[in-house]
Amino acid sequence: xxxxSFKASTLKFLGVISICVVVLxxxxxxxxxxxxxxxxxxxxxxxxxxFNNIKSSDxxxxxLAQYGWSVxxxxxxxxxxxIPKEFDKVMTSYNEIQxxxxxxxxxxxxxxxxxxxxxxxxxxxxxxxxYANIIVYKDKVIAGDICSADARGFIHTLYMPELSN
Length: 165
Known about the structure:
Blueprint: H1 10-30, H2 36-46, H3 57-65, E1 77-82, H4 89-100, E2 112-119, E3 130-137, E4 140-148, E5 155-156
């Protein structure tokens, strides 16, 4: 059995501590930060929106009405979905849409949730079929989107698009 011991001089010890402090300060400045303005904008947009107490499809309809959407009385589809553990390109892109509205699906990996799909009846300046999807976990909306049924369609956040004149 071998036993090694060493004695660090005070100068070497202070040198190592100084390097650690410099590295820590560098990391603080190099780690990406999210703009507080963006976070504040999301908070302001979601200020009057309640994401909780979604226990039925009627509650989902009322949730969408907070954004100004009118939907058919019954959902087109109601099913269970499982949030994947690892996101592929499609899920990563979808989660970016969620982050734009202050939500994040990555917190719910491997969880089973309910998805409600409604047909929107008041989408502005568009004649095609448009759907609203909301994903609910433990009576709380954790994701949502507005999408068209067309092959070259669109998908965006739950917010009503701004009309351009």
